[in-house]
Amino acid sequence: MKTKHLALGLFSLLLACNQAPSEKNIQDKADSTSARPDTVAKAKEPAPAKGPYLGIDVSHFQGDVNWQEIKDAGLHFAFDKATQGTSYKDPDYQQNRTGAQAVGLKHGAYHFYVAGDDPLKQADLFLSVLNYEKGDMPPVLDLEQGGMKAGINTATYQQNVLKWLTTVEQKLNVRPIVYTNHPFGNQYLDHPDFSKYDLWIAEYEVSEPKIPNAWKDKGWLIWQRSERGKVEGAVGDVDHDLYNPKADFVDAANQ
């Protein structure tokens, strides 16, 4: 979940898609059903908010985040780095968690997995910092090339990653999400058990992301579609994320 440079136009386009119907459209619908007063009354009520559901993921690299501006920009959720390996705790995790929740954003946390480090100690560190509450987004395990070490055996790596996932799931009674990209997923995450976990896929500047083989039948839940985005309220560049419009956002976030 790296953060680099500059903006994207697709973000503004999707925000526009997220706006409520115009008053004219609502009135046209009401006029077309004028023979049924009960239907007219319902048509004049504000339409419920619908997708796309947009989010960001941040760490201490963004500095102080103005979460109200993030919310006002039309975003719905935020993931915040909590831990890495067996000892690192992101210094801004609790501040970002509190700030996001205070303005009504769905919040989730992720752990950056380090191959070669004890998976159970990594899970314990994450759980000790997480402070998970019902209604939070599911926890996320970040699996990418930056966390690999030379000489790692793939089968051992998979077994250890699954230990982390099952440990966190059992402790929280919530199934984690796996974050990865297509090349890494095919090389290191081809074990069929990974398909039990929802996929957060990272791929940029494409119209649709490529899905690793383990998730071919399941597809993606979240798509990190830019690592170069800017949004008011965040200091520095942030990753922009899209929640799959085919999935139920509320139920998935409260599973």
Question: Which terms would index this structure?
Answer:
TIM Barrel; 2 domains; eight-stranded mixed beta barrel; globular; disordered N terminus
Annotated CATH topology of the largest domain:
TIM Barrel
Q: Care to count the β-strands? A: 9
Largest sheet: 8 strands, mixed, barrel
Mean pLDDT score, rounded? 80
Description:
By secondary structure, the protein is an alpha/beta fold. It contains nine helices and nine strands. The chain has two domains: 7-50, no CATH class; 53-253, TIM Barrel (Alpha-Beta Barrel). It is 34% helix and 19% strand. The chain has an eight-stranded mixed β-barrel with strand order 1-2-4-5-6-7-8-9, surrounded by four helices. A hairpin with an 8-residue loop joins β8 (222-229) and β9. The longest helix has 19 residues, at 154-172. The two termini are 24 Å apart.
